[in-house]
Amino acid sequence: MSKSTIVVGLDGSEAGARALAFAQAQAKQIGDCSITVCFVIEWSPFTFQTKEENEQRHMRREQELQRAHDVVLDPAVADAKASGIEVEGIVRHGDVADILEGVAKKRGAIQIVVGRVGERGLKRLFGGVTGRLVAGSSVPVTIIP
Amino acid sequence: MNKLFTYVMAVFASLLPSLAAAQEAVGVDERINQIFADYTGWYVSFIFAPLPGTNFSWIALWLVVGAVVFTVYFGAIQLKGFWHSIQLVRGDYSDPDDAGEVSHFQALATALSGTVGLGNIAGVAVAVSIGGPGATFWMVVAGLFGMATKFTECTLGVKYRNEFPDGHVSGGPMYYIVKGFSERGLPLGGFMAVLFSIFTILGALGGGNMFQANQAHAQLAGVLGDYPGWITGVILAGVTFAVIAGGLKSIARVTEKIVPFMGVFYVLVSILILIINWDMIGWAFGQIFMGAFTGLGVVGGFTGALIQGFRRAAFSNEAGIGSAAIAHSAVRTKEPVTEGYVALLEPFIDTVVICTMTALVIVISGVLNQDPATGLYIWNEEAGRIATEGDVSGVALTSAAYARAFSWFPILLMIAVVLFAFSTMISWSYYGLKAWTYLFGEGPAKELTFKVIFCVFIVIGAAASLGPVIDFSDAMLFSMAIVNIIALYFLMPIVKRELNSYVARLRSGEIVKHK
């Protein structure tokens, strides 16, 4: 039984891949450690949509989930598994910072690892995803440049 | 995209010459009017017929009686369930595993964008100028009762919608009438559903389209100076076609974002005006309450205020018409009742909040002329309403009232009116389309046919002054309510069963709060 878990935020970018590689190295050092790879599709329940969008929402959601698995998550999970680590892959809709924090809490993770997202302008000023994650997280957060 | 473009061009090319000709030869307008008046006049007179010995149209009473029946039957659900509705919209009960599906908030916002519109701006002005400030009181009363009607129809809309293999959904009164009636072993479900669909298509082309295009043009011409209506029509039709035929989703999205913003801004400006005139708020409420029962010198007195208020509420929030049930059925919830709860907020926001704001500002601004000696309103016999500043009514009256506080307001109002009209048209194109596909089946070619017809009617609506045609389409909207409310009476026990089961599970803790 795994004693500890590391949550990795994946977004399909190179920084995300580096985050996963870092987490793998960590997990190996710890030994009895599993990885939860989480892909978050940015989504808010408080946006305005057209009637057609609402009507087709369920269909689109299924497509989004499928795509996330096919393109990003499943290959990453397969890679990590090949190196002999226990890995689980999940896709969620919502706010990236909230979801990662929620997943980490639920699984009693020891840390969250994310890749740094290059953010400019106002977003840097007000703190982007990583900033908010750091500000609100209940476990240590490692940011991979 | 290329095919679409050729289609649009072909439609416009065929329209332009005939429209230009229609503008030159006023005779065409008149002939269409005459034909319509001859063949449909009797039906329009029937729908808007007053009850014997009064000037209260029976159709307004039909809607109000329905609303009162549902209020009593569901034990004042709009009061008992109000807080729960807000919790649902906030997402307190949303399962995180369902994230990514249409949220309750999104369903509410989408449905509201179809109802908040000209009724809240122009309609209220008409009601207050004919029925006096007291009309506001009855409008709010009717709006509060209408919340129960929306609760009933939207619960049914979600419960009996159609889910197609590819995952998209279609719902609305035509679906719940057929399925609900057969479930209860009642006859005529199929017939009523077809009837409802026909009324919906005609209502969508009229009140949801020609009337909106017509008013949008009137407002534009009022501010920018007179110019031919077909220009507005062709532009509106072009943009609408681009949106509904699938090419330009971005415009629809922009509208869906701007319209709620305009709505909120409108309310904020109203509140600001009320704050500036805070010392008059008590007086204005006094006018409204006294007017509600005495009429304050307005011809027709108490009943005049009552009629105007009730009519306005019915026109504005569409409770009982069945349109909202179509919009809400897209939500994928395990509990149809939750959608009913959410929908009952619509008449509250639309009528109790936004319409009341307009009415208060009109009353406080003093654009309604009062006799300084007696405090009674001066009746303009010729126009059949209270004498107003500048002798205007409708949007122009609202505009004048707000302009007293902020001189830039008429320009903003013009933009708001055009956007509201546009979003109402987009909404009704969807309602019409759903009725169309119910009758003729789903399929790209069939749907495109309806969309083209819809856009042609926008041009006609903006270009022509087709009084009888618009009267006929208004009559269609209310015909939808006749079929729909009859169906609701037969189906309300099903809603009651759903509600009781839901409330019991809420109490027992089986339905959990996630936040």
Automatic annotation (TrEMBL), chain B:
<dbReference type="Pfam" id="PF01235">
    <property type="entry name" value="Na_Ala_symp"/>
</dbReference>
<comment type="similarity">
    <text>Belongs to the alanine or glycine:cation symporter (AGCS) (TC 2.A.25) family.</text>
</comment>
<feature type="transmembrane region" description="Helical">
    <location>
        <begin position="408"/>
        <end position="431"/>
    </location>
</feature>
<keyword id="KW-1133">Transmembrane helix</keyword>
<feature type="signal peptide">
    <location>
        <begin position="1"/>
        <end position="22"/>
    </location>
</feature>
<protein>
    <submittedName>
        <fullName>Amino-acid carrier protein AlsT</fullName>
    </submittedName>
</protein>
<feature type="transmembrane region" description="Helical">
    <location>
        <begin position="186"/>
        <end position="207"/>
    </location>
</feature>
<feature type="transmembrane region" description="Helical">
    <location>
        <begin position="56"/>
        <end position="76"/>
    </location>
</feature>
<keyword id="KW-0813">Transport</keyword>
<keyword id="KW-0769">Symport</keyword>
<keyword id="KW-0472">Membrane</keyword>
<feature type="transmembrane region" description="Helical">
    <location>
        <begin position="476"/>
        <end position="495"/>
    </location>
</feature>
<feature type="transmembrane region" description="Helical">
    <location>
        <begin position="452"/>
        <end position="470"/>
    </location>
</feature>
<keyword id="KW-0997">Cell inner membrane</keyword>
<feature type="transmembrane region" description="Helical">
    <location>
        <begin position="284"/>
        <end position="307"/>
    </location>
</feature>
<feature type="transmembrane region" description="Helical">
    <location>
        <begin position="258"/>
        <end position="278"/>
    </location>
</feature>
<keyword id="KW-1003">Cell membrane</keyword>
<dbReference type="InterPro" id="IPR001463">
    <property type="entry name" value="Na/Ala_symport"/>
</dbReference>
<keyword id="KW-0812">Transmembrane</keyword>
<feature type="transmembrane region" description="Helical">
    <location>
        <begin position="227"/>
        <end position="246"/>
    </location>
</feature>
<feature type="transmembrane region" description="Helical">
    <location>
        <begin position="348"/>
        <end position="368"/>
    </location>
</feature>
<keyword id="KW-0732">Signal</keyword>
